[in-house]
Amino acid sequence: MPPSTLSVLARDLLGLVLPVACGGCGLPDVPWCDGCDALLAGPPWRCEERAGRLDTLGGAAPFPVWTLTDNLGPARAAVVAWKDGGRLYLTSHLARALTAAAWEVRPVLGPGPVLLVAVPSAAAARRRRGAWVVDDLARGVARALAPTRRDVLRVPALRRRGRARDQVGLGVRDRGRNLEGRVVATRRGRRTLPGATVLLLDDVLTTGASLAASAAAVRAAGGRVAGALTLASTPAPGTSSVAGADSSGSSGARVRRSGVDWVAGASRG
Fold first, then answer.
1. Which of 8, 104, 111, 260 is least crowded, fewest Cβ atoms below 10 Å from its Cβ?
2. Are the C-beta atoms of 206 and 176 separated by less than 8 Å?
3. What percent of the chain clears pLDDT 70, i.e. is strictly above it?
4. CA gap 35, 24 in Å, rounded
C-alpha cells in the first residue's frame, strides 16, 4: 500500500523542523555536500569481476558492469538513506551522476537505440519506500540525456513476480535462490525487448544475483544485454577498494587487482 497523503505530509513537516544533514556523510546544514557529490563524479570503471553470480547463471557470457564508487563509507550511507531512510530527494543528485556515466559508456554499447532498464525491486520494498527508486533513477537519467542523446530510452521492462524477498541481508546463495525464475518481462517489456540493446541500471553491485536474473529475463524476452551501470560496487573480501581517478590523467578511473588494470570501457586484460 502506498504511503497515505497524511503520512507524506507528516514526513515533509518533520523535515522542516529537524536539522538538515548531508545524506552521505552527515555534514550539517546541507542535504547533499560537494564532497559526497565528488565521490560519484566518475568516470565509471568496470567492476564485474567482483560479482561471481554473473559468471555462473544461465551459462551466458558475462557482460560489462560499470560503477562510480565503492559501496563504502559516505557512498554506502547515501544509498541506504536514499532507499530506506526516506531521503528520496537524493534521487536527483544520484541520477545526475549516473547521467554523466551513461553518456561516457554509451559509445561502447553498440549502434542503434539503447533501452535503459531498471533492475526490479521486490513489491514489498516498493511499498515500504513509496517508490521504485531505481526506476526513478532511470527516468532521471533518460530525461537528462533526452535533449542530446535521443538514442537512450528508459523502459520499465522488468518486474518481479511471486513473493521474492528484498535482497538486503541475504547471502550469495540465498540471493540467487531468492530470484530464481522470479524476474520476468512486463507487458511493455515483451513488446519492446525483442531485438533491443539493453543497459541495465541498479543501485549497488554486490553478488551480481539481481543483475544476472534481470539479464536472463531480458534474454528470454529476445533482448541483448550490452552492459550494466550501478552507483556503487561492494568490494569482495580481501580485495582493495578503488581510489580516485586515473593517475595518467586520461579518462577512466583505474583499479589495480591481481596485477591487472581496469579502465572504463576496457576489457579484461
1. 111
2. no
3. 72
4. 9
Joined grid coordinates for residue 226? 550490452
Q: Which of the 8 DSSP states describes residue 28?
A: B
Residues ≥6 apart with Cβ < 8 Å to 250: none
Distance CA 175, CA 177 (A): 6
Q: Could you tell me which of 219, 218, 119, 98 has the C-alpha nearest to residue 167?
A: 119
Q: Among residues 265, 198, 200, which one has the least CA distance to residue 230?
A: 200
Residue 62 grid cell = 558475462
CA gap 43, 41 in Å, rounded: 6
Scanning the structure block, which residue is given the C-alpha cell 546544514?
Answer: 29
Residue 252, all three cell numbers: 577512466
Q: So what's the pLDDT on residue 234? A: 92
The pLDDT tens digits for 228-238 are 999 999 987 76
Taking the whole predicted model, whether its pTM rises above 0.85 is answered as no
Q: For residue 177, report the phi and psi dihedrals to the nearest 5 degrees.
A: -65, -40
CA-derived radius of gyration, the chain:
18
Residue 102's region, left for phi above 0, alpha for psi from -120 to 50, else beta, is alpha
**Residue range 78-133, pLDDT digits in tens:** 999 999 898 999 999 999 999 999 999 999 998 899 999 999 998 888 888 888 99
Distance of CA 73 to CAs 36, 55, 139, 241, Å? 10, 28, 27, 11
Residue type, 105: V
Contact 218, 193 (CB under 8 A): yes
Q: Yes or no: say if 134 and 202 are a contact pair by the CB < 8 Å rule.
A: yes
Burial class (CB in 10 A: 0-12, 13-18, 19+), 9: exposed
Q: Rounded to 5 degrees, what are φ and ψ at 79?
A: -65, -40
